[in-house]
Amino acid sequence: MKLSIVKIGGNLIEKETALEQVLENFSKIEGPKILVHGGGKMATQMAEKLGVETKMVDGRRITDQETLNIITMVYGGLVNKTIVAKLQAKNCNALGLSGADLNSIKSVKRPVKTHDFGFVGDITNVNTNMFSLLLNNTITPVCCAISHDGDGQLFNTNADTIASEIAIALANEFEAELYYCFEKKGVLRSIEDEDSVITDINTEIYQALIKENIIADGMLPKLHNCFHALEKNVHKVYIGSVDMLGNEKEIRTTITL
Amino acid sequence: MKLSIVKIGGNLIEKETALEQVLENFSKIEGPKILVHGGGKMATQMAEKLGVETKMVDGRRITDQETLNIITMVYGGLVNKTIVAKLQAKNCNALGLSGADLNSIKSVKRPVKTHDFGFVGDITNVNTNMFSLLLNNTITPVCCAISHDGDGQLFNTNADTIASEIAIALANEFEAELYYCFEKKGVLRSIEDEDSVITDINTEIYQALIKENIIADGMLPKLHNCFHALEKNVHKVYIGSVDMLGNEKEIRTTITL
């Protein structure tokens, strides 16, 4: 059976109308489905309001205790419950989850190498039994970007990685399709040209695009997650806009090995 | 089968050691169980930090949009996920829920009479099918004091009432026992004397205590919830400290009709 795992980016969460459209399209996807979200920009705004400094290293947030509390409030509370309530209104039986809920996603603190990222977790286990139980009861998990270590500690965890690891964990049981949804129509050849979508990327093209400096910054780890998922038997992986959800004819980037 | 529904008060949530003890005792309760929590004091503190004025009328919070956002962050995010992670560490398969999650608790906006309480919901339905599904799979729901209207709106909802309405809704299927857990050992005859616990209160004693002005303020609606639950077939209702959980010999107040 097909299983759709949809990760939505921060820009889609922030704007009321964009979020509404994402959830409308998501709710119409047939069959079992899982939504994954972060909320980084809203967490940064909340940190500013509370006078908590946001520390970034190489584009990654350093998560001290205060920052973890803000992330738990914003991702696990405000964003997650807002999405769940809106999905329920669209007849989608949504259930919000952090990695601690149902022990759904376990992780370990990221080892300190050049930097100590603080309360950031690297995923060690996805609880396939619990996800199967939910999906088999037509429940739609809505996962925020938080995991836990099983000893009571919550961890900030990359939402893209949560999405790919869930897809990988469930790839034996389902025909898992992974959708990375953001504000662009796909991976762009030129960042200035919204219509320059690269419709197909395979390993070979990927290497060429890196050499040409067309893929850089945040798109690098995202594509890394895509290929990793495909190597681990995830059936299909796409990057594109909200319009691609439930519409196979919409322009998007399809990733293949 | 026995089902324990435990509501924990704000003073127990705020203090690290008190919370640890509550969760330790709660996790040891045998059989199916449900935890219900608010977090009013932490929400008030967060509102102060964010410069949002807390408006109270007759001891009840008026919930405007900003306050609802704070409640969703604090109750649904920080408090709920902290509790869930700690329970998982104690081998209790906890699942955090707002009323929107699994459409577990539906409500309508409280009608405007003398005051408009804003985004405050009066419960209209508890989703017994979903609670049964969870309990039958040895999952422990951890419910925060938030409900929803089914049309996408979250509502601030009294945690005592959530606990009693869940107990009532499940009273047909289970032998429901309701525990109101707070910082005192029970209902006190004299607020200055911690040892003046009234061990048994029935309808008759209740009326006498009200006449004597011994029961007043916050204890009135709590006891109202207790009697309402008993009238609706909840098996047993207790008010007491964390020490009463899992220990029938501990002093506490037992409510009977």
TrEMBL record, chains A, B:
This is Acetylglutamate kinase. Belongs to the acetylglutamate kinase family. ArgB subfamily. Keywords: Amino-acid biosynthesis, Arginine biosynthesis, ATP-binding, Cytoplasm, Kinase, Nucleotide-binding, Transferase. Gene3D superfamilies: Acetylglutamate kinase-like. Its EC number is 2.7.2.8. InterPro entries: AceGlu_kinase-like_sf (IPR036393), AcgluKinase_fam (IPR004662), ArgB (IPR037528), Asp/Glu/Uridylate_kinase (IPR001048). It comes from Galbibacter pacificus. The record marks K7, K222 as: Transition state stabilizer.
